[in-house]
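can u do me a favor
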């Protein structure tokens, strides 16, 4: 009986989260689609392209709004999948390898990028109870494990059928 109650509560929680997500999606889809797509072909495949993209969204408000709209439509079953899919929709894992959370003399800091701030704002819009700490942790882990994902993909490509 207790297990059935728990599974029912979990189902209600999941459905509530999906409903909130759908409401947010509907709100974002009411805006008129811009006539011209200002965003480059995504995901970006080089760090140089991404750094230029960051510079462009810093200078171009219309481009930034298009990016916000794109990120808002990414979806995902929970906040972690939304964040990971958002990052992957903009940069490849190969680009993420050349980025760190805090930054180094040789690698830029992800937390200083417009992309990070846009993802964080989208998380708060979709779930007002989301904390910066959790959002930061998910972003950090995604960036940190990019090299592992690339290595895994490469090892699968090498294996014969």
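np, heres the sequence
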């Amino acid at each position: 009986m207790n297990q059935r109650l728990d599974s029912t509560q979990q189902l209600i929680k999941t459905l509530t989260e999906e409903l909130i997500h759908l409401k947010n999606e509907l709100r974002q889809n009411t805006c008129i689609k811009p006539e011209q797509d200002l965003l480059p072909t995504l995901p970006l495949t080089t760090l140089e392209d991404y750094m230029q993209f960051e510079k462009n969204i810093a200078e171009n408000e219309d481009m930034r709004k298009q990016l916000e709209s794109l990120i808002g439509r990414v979806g995902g079953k929970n906040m972690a999948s939304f964040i990971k899919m958002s990052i992957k929709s903009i940069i490849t894992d190969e680009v993420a390898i050349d980025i760190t959370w805090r930054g180094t003399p040789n690698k830029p800091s992800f937390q200083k990028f417009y992309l990070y701030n846009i993802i964080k704002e989208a998380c708060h819009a979709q779930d007002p109870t989301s904390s910066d700490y959790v959002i930061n942790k998910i972003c950090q882990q995604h960036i940190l494990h990019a090299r592992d994902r690339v290595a895994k993909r490469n090892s699968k490509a090498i294996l014969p059928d």
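Residues 1-31 form one domain. hope that helps!!
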